[in-house]
Write a structure and sequence with these properties.
heterodimer; A: about 1050 residues; alpha+beta; 36 helices; 37 strands; about 45% helix; about 30% strand; elongated; B: about 130 residues; alpha/beta; five-stranded parallel sheet; 5 strands
Chain lengths: ~1050, ~130
Amino acid sequence: MNYLKNELYELLKKESYIFDFIQNYALDGLWFWDLENPENEWMNPKFWITLGYDPSQMSHSPSAWQDIIFKDDLKDAQHNVELHLKDANHPYNQIVRYKHKNGSTVWIRCYGVAIRNAEGKPTRMLGAHIDVTKLKETEARLLDKVERFDHIINGSNLGTWQWNVQTGECVFNERWAEIVGYSLEELEPISIDTWLKLAHPVDLEISSQKLTDHFEGKSAFYRLEARMLHKKGHWVWVLDKGKVVSWTEDGKPEWVTGSHQDITDRKQMEEALKKSNQRNKTFVEQAPTAIAMFDTNMVYLAASNQWIEDYGLQEIEIIGKSHYEIFPEISAEWKAHHQEALKGAILNSEEEQFTRDNGDKIWIQWEIKPWFNEHDNIGGILMFTADITATKQREALLMEYQDLLKRVKEVALIGTWEFSIETQKIIWSNVTKRIHDVDQDYTPSLETAIDFFPEGENRKKIQIALETAISTGNGYDLELQIRTAKGNLKWVRAIGISDFRNGKCTRIYGLFQDIDQQTKNIKKLAFEEEQFRQTFEFASIGMAIVGLSGQWLRVNSRICEILGYTKEELYKIDFQQLTYEKDLNIDLELLNDVIAGKINNYSIEKRYLHKTGKIIWAKLAVSMVRNDEGIPIHFVSQIQDITKSKQAQLQLEATINRLQGILDASTQVGIIETNKEGVILSYNKGAINLLGFQPDEVINTFQLSDFHQLSELEEHSSSIEKEGITNISPAKDLFSVAQTLGFETKEWNYNKKDGSVLPVQLTITAIKNVKKQITGYLAIVADISNMKAAENEIKSLLKVTQDQNKRLLNFAHIVSHNLRSHTSNLSMLLNLSSLPSKISDSNKIFSFLEKASNNLSATVEHLNEIVVINTNTSENLVYKPVKPFVTDALATFKGEILKQDAKVTINIEESLAVMCLPAYLESSLLNLISNALKYRSEKNKPEILIKAEKYEHWVLISVKDNGIGIDLSKHGAKIFGMYKTFHSNKDARGIGLFITKNQIEAMGGKIDVESELNKGTTFKIWLKHDEI
Amino acid sequence: MTKFDLVCIIDDDPIIVFGTKKLMELANFCGNFMVFENGKLALEGLKPLIQNQDLLPEIILLDINMPVMDGWEFLEEITKIEPLKTITIYMVSSSIDPADIKRAESYSIVDKYIVKPINLEGIKKMMSDT
């Protein structure tokens, strides 16, 4: 502790005058309050002196000062005391006001501290007063000033800002925020960023540049007109001014204070004015006429482009120059005009002729007048000139046109007329007179004019029209008929225009046009249209006008019938809705092609959906209607209901397909279709398989008869001729029977492509149309070669069987007859023997018995032989050369040959061999040679020729003699029969040839005979050469 | 007295001839016979009798199967000469073939077809028939 402080402490304790010194001079008041007895409080004298009171007169109690303290402050003080007493940490420290004795206010800062006992309970309170009145007064004055400044600022409507350059801290006033449409609260937190965000980027740049200049001392003030973004989104102009008010220790700017003034209005006005000026300038420049604006010294202020062009001033900058400077040659007369105008006169001229330097004559219209500035003083003159040469020329042209029009009207049969109400006179133009078929010098009156209109409709109409025109001023435009002076009825167009002024009609004028021809044409057209409409409406095919997007525009009744909808229903929809979906695409495609111009029209078969849902087949023809420019307007469609025929067609197609199916399915049967002439039209797979020809080889080129063999065709022709059918030609006759009877079935041999022959069964059927006329033939060709082969086999088998049967029968005969004859003989003889008879007869009978018995035995033997021969099958045949057999047989008859002096010739190849049963061949040869010798001629020496030749699979052995021959016509059938003899030759048994025949046939061969009586006989034996 | 005076037998089988003759004798049918071995000989024998209007046999027994000219051929030839109305011709054969029987009937001059053997009853029938 500081020793002095200690000293002071000690002094304080001892000397009370130190305490008094301190309390008197260090403070402005001191008090000590007894909290236990609150009405006791000691205030030091300074306390009262400060307040202006005499201390000796004041009591030591709170009430003494409570009277002079401001009541509000008392409340606060008491409150604070309570708080402090409760909580020692809460300081008792406030500023209160006392009323000075002299009435003024004394500001006292009051400190206090509670003194607590050992228990902590506050018992006393010590307080100190400091007079802060001056401070407060200064404060008040300062606040006052600030308030005043605030008013000024508010009055000036300025936004204020304070910016700490170093920290960025900013303080704005409410107005600052208000300028940009915010409240200050809305902008918080406020900093320099607030400004940066709201300012226009361009202006920000300028702003920072200017700030820098100011900071560097280049400018005394920072001043800028800048734009800021208003809350509502538009820009406001502010005048931003500022100045640095404090600097940091190192000379940097610290605080800058500034203001914002809302100059938006001013800026807008400036802009408006600039625009306005620009507009005015533009207006003047762009004016279609030549205008120039001068000030009072005739100096150019503005000039229109036309002015510049008219006076050839393109190269010169005239604004600011004197008119006389640019046009030195201006006449005195003109200068006088100018001056007059400057004095206030308005001068003009409708037209005035000038001669240019180059001699051209031009017409000018001009006007000069003064203009007034904002103070209503003459600021200068306006000059307006116009070159009306062109106009003048046009006028002249107009005159010409009018003349032309007059002529045209005459040609176009348009006449004019005029009726003056006042004079009641009518004037007709020449054409009008002509229309009425009157002379040129005819003068019409109102009555006569109206009389031209025939009584009735026409006159009534024109009268009413005229009256209306006169009374109301309404014109009329009528097409009426007049009866001309020549008596012709004529259609005219009468137009009346009423000249109506001030509620009164002064005159009526108008036109008459001869529209007779036109009207007639129109009426004709209307009639034709009506005809067309009738045709359209009642046509028997459906007709419709269809819009470009497919909507039904107009339909006739037939369409309604076909589709089942009423006209009204159809007009609401389009054709696409009624088209069967599968047909829609192709229809639309073609429609588009028509629109695009690729095709002119199209015709298709399509399906529509009837209202009832059933499908309607229709033939649709569509064509396009275009206007004069070739642009499509609409379609015309014609629809025919072909449902029935389509169904028939579909059925037919189905049938044809089935037929085709049949045709194709038949691969083994040929189905060939021909036309009436027999030329092949169709040719199926079966025919290809059977005949080998391909369709393209025969269709339209071959006739059916080309497959046939000519011989067979001829045979057919002759056979049918026998039936009574006339022949035409073998080829044509092929169809004759089918023609007459409808069909013919016959077996033929066809020539296949490869040349081989195919046996076929051919059925030709005539194909007829509904009228029962033959349109062609259908030929069904069936391969019967297998059948034929079988048939042939059967036939041969049959033959064999027949042969067998014959032989059997023969055999039976033989058995029955021959055996019976012998046995019957036996029985007869035995019968006789039982009858009484002579001895000689008995002997005879007995010898006959013996004979008969022998005969019987012989016959049985023969039969046996034959049976044996016939049981020998051809499987036992062997291949043997022929010649040896012949030579051997001849050897047997060597004796007889010699005896008869017979000449024997052998003509047999050594190697020639046959399939035979050797025993039979030997036996046969023996028999034949024997016969040849036996039946020799009486007259000649026997000559025997034995030949053997090979014929394919057969060998022919022939034995020829020159003997007595056989009458074949008589005996030919029986020659090889059993027991047949034809001559009285005793050696004839009649059985030799029978056996030979059997033997030959057992070997699979054949025997034949040729003979002529008294000439000779040739026996021919056919034997197999090899296996067939 | 025999029934018939003359019978002609045309047959090549001597047994038949002998037998028939004997039976006819026994039956008292006839006693005189003309015998030809075949048709040719019969024609040669009968022709002149017809031409000369000589005594003709009342009955002819004609066999079918004969050499040179058989029964059928004989019939063909004999009808060409003259229709023998007065003579009764019996066709005699051991053939039972219906075809033969039918063929015999086709000849108008054949009165009957008789199947061998001929026996006494047969002869007697012949007698009663004529």
